[in-house]
Amino acid sequence: MTEARGMAAASPTARRRRLGMEMRRLRKDAGMTLSQVAESAECDASWLSRVENGRRSIKPRDLRLLLQIYGASNEEAEALVTLSRESKLKGWWQTFEQGAIPPWFERYVGLENEAASVFGYDNQLVTGLLQTEEYSKGVLLAARPEVPPERIEEQVQARLERQKLLTREIPLRLWAILDEAVLHRPVGGRQAFGKQLEHILELSELREVTVQVLPFAEGGHASLGTSFAILSFPEQSDPDVVYIEDLTSSQHLESAEDVARYNLVFDHLQSSALSDVKSKDFIARVMRDFA
To answer: Which residues form the signal peptide (predicted)?
Structure first.
């Protein structure tokens, strides 16, 4: 997968991740284990691990102590303290009512907010960034019929807010590969689904949006049964993240081996799918069945 990277909006989630990676690098450069640092700093090793993994924030006072233990320069220390403060700012997704964005999904939203590109494959549903309001509502109602309508509406609005990434000053680069099965499942009803297909075609005209269809005729492929997204970031020091989710949880794969594997899979899917032009024609033909 080779695409130019662009600038993106600052995200406290991405800042926390970058700070954690820098803290891990400095610790390893100092030749210390988590246990050794925990003993020197009189802190818990599991807490320190979560800081390095970008899962926990850290107070400037505690950060300065660790940096002193690692022998960081004054310049490095000030840059990381600034990064620490930025990591505590609130993201737009934290302004919604609790539950509008599931806790296990918040990290993805934070990373997506700073990503330069998202390359994904979806085998059952239209990817969230391309969903209409009615389609989103249909998805959420089907998944959680017990949730009150007002809570569903909050979740829909949060999803629509994410879509502003596609039209910001420097837009997110989105490359979405949709399995043909996605185009035959009328979530939200036939009329609403027809409008959803029309919406996909409209968004695919944006310069930074590419939509491909992986047809049934291709048979088996490299990602049967697994939807995923690969996020890339404007800072070269921020490695790609692979995101996978199920009904109640998610995974963020960050090892170089995992990321390389999914990039290879995405390349295979790109090659197997219809071209963007043929995909638009395909979607338009299917859309006529829902007119």
So the answer is: none
Can you point out the beta strands (E) in the chain? 117-122, 173-179, 209-214, 228-232, 241-245, 250-253
Among candidates 162, 120, 165, which has minimal Cα distance to 8? 165
Q: Is residue 1 part of a domain?
A: no
Q: Note whether 66 and 106 are same-domain residues.
A: no
Query: Which residue from 13, 19, 14 is spatially nearest to 77, judged by alpha carbons?
Result: 19
Distances, alpha carbon 97 to alpha carbons 160, 223, 249, in Å: 15, 35, 20
Q: How much is the pTM?
A: 0.82
Instruction: Give which of 132, 149, 209, 147 is closest to 173, Cα–Cα.
Output: 209
* Alpha-carbon torsion, ordered 36, 38, 44, 50, to 10 deg: -80
In a domain, 91, yes or no: no
Q: Percent of the chain scored above 90 by pLDDT?
A: 69
Domain count, the chain: 2
Q: What is the pLDDT averaged over residues 199-205?
A: 98
In a domain, residue 273? The reply is: yes
Q: Terminus-to-terminus CA distance in the chain, angstroms?
A: 36
The predicted-structure confidence for 130-175, as pLDDT tens digits, reads as follows 999 999 999 999 988 888 888 899 999 999 999 999 999 999 999 9
CA distance 279 to 275: 6
CATH of the domain at 138: 3.30.870
Average pLDDT along the chain: 91
Q: Does 155 reside within a domain?
A: yes
Interatomic CA distance for residues 283 and 214, integer angstroms: 11
